[in-house]
TrEMBL record:
Pathway: Metabolic intermediate biosynthesis; chorismate biosynthesis; chorismate from D-erythrose 4-phosphate and phosphoenolpyruvate: step 4/7. Residues 16-98 form the Shikimate dehydrogenase substrate binding N-terminal domain. InterPro entries: Aminoacid_DH-like_N_sf, NAD(P)-bd_dom_sf, Shikimate_DH-bd_N, Shikimate_DH_fam. The lineage of its organism: Bacteria, Pseudomonadati, Pseudomonadota, Alphaproteobacteria, Hyphomicrobiales. The keyword Amino-acid biosynthesis applies. Keywords: Amino-acid biosynthesis, Aromatic amino acid biosynthesis, Oxidoreductase. The keyword Oxidoreductase applies. This is Shikimate dehydrogenase.
């Protein structure tokens, strides 16, 4: 049972920044983990337009009770530039989703891939030795791409409507994993894992990120979308008989990791 949240003058504040921010579940769950551990801290949502991120981060640096920041869409790529140091996976993916204070500096990491693949593993699927298709080369997609290859996928095909963003990520991936990453499409045929790392499915009327009519029961389909609870891609995949992981699986898998980083129980290797 979650302990009662303590709020007083010694409470440590951990903003989660994004735009929009209404879809995030982190404030309650991460604050609950902190309360259960007896840690006096809380996670609060902050809605920031992209053009205001730099100014807000300058103010956050001046707030001496802000020890860390969680970063969500669309700020993950931009926030890497504000980190004095970052983990190897954050540098390779070109994005961060968490920033931890080190004096007046920030140290960045990218845990989305870790959470995404742990969530998939919890559903019984192992990407090692198998080909994967990933849709989306943004902040979350970049971290997921890195982790798919780090866990032994034979190849990763990457698709993004922004060819420049896709190619930049492919270059970073092939530097870390030579010859393993290539451009892909929305056609899922020939892949064991089909992974969506775009917001498609959050809004009613969004197109599906892949051609779902080609899905087969032998494939596993994963999504980053947490609201609705069963995104349209996951619904289509289940109708085709696929194994699936909705965005909640990724979220749950990395919640403890994020909370322990914020509380200082783990450190970022950077």
């Amino acid at each position: 049972m979650t302990q009662q949240l303590k709020i007083d003058g010694e409470t440590r504040i951990f903003p989660i920044i994004g735009h929009p921010i209404g879809q995030v579940k982190s404030p309650a769950s991460l604050s609950g983990i902190m309360a259960d551990r007896g840690f006096n801290g809380m996670v609060v949502p902050i809605d920031i337009h992209p053009q205001d991120v730099a100014g807000w981060l300058a103010q956050a640096r001046a707030m001496r009770n802000v020890d860390g920041i969680i970063v969500t869409v669309p700020h993950k790529v931009a926030c890497l530039a504000f980190c004095a140091r970052a983990s190897a996976r954050a540098r390779a993916s070109g994005a961060v989703n968490i920033m931890i204070r080190d004096g007046d500096d920030w140290i960045g990491d990218a845990t989305d891939g870790h959470g995404y693949l742990d969530g998939i593993a919890a559903e019984g699927f192992d990407v090692s030795g198998k080909p994967a298709l990933l849709i989306g080369a943004g902040g979350a997609g970049s971290a997921i791409a890195y982790e798919i290859l780090a866990r032994g996928a034979t190849e990763l095909a990457l698709h993004d409507i922004d060819a420049g963003k896709r190619d930049a990520l492919l270059a970073r991936l092939n530097e870390a994993f030579p010859g393993k990453a290539r451009a892909g499409s929305t056609d899922p045929r020939g892949f064991a894992l089909i992974a969506n790392a775009t917001p498609l499915g959050m809004r009613e009327g969004d197109p599906l990120p892949v051609q779902a009519e080609f899905l087969t029961p032998q494939q596993f389909v994963a999504d980053v979308v947490t609201r609705p609870a069963v995104p349209p891609l996951i619904a289509a995949a289940r109708a085709a008989g696929c194994g699936t992981m909705p965005g909640s699986g990724m979220f749950n898998a990395q919640a403890v990791l994020l909370a322990e980083l914020l509380m200082g129980m783990r450190s970022i290797d950077a």
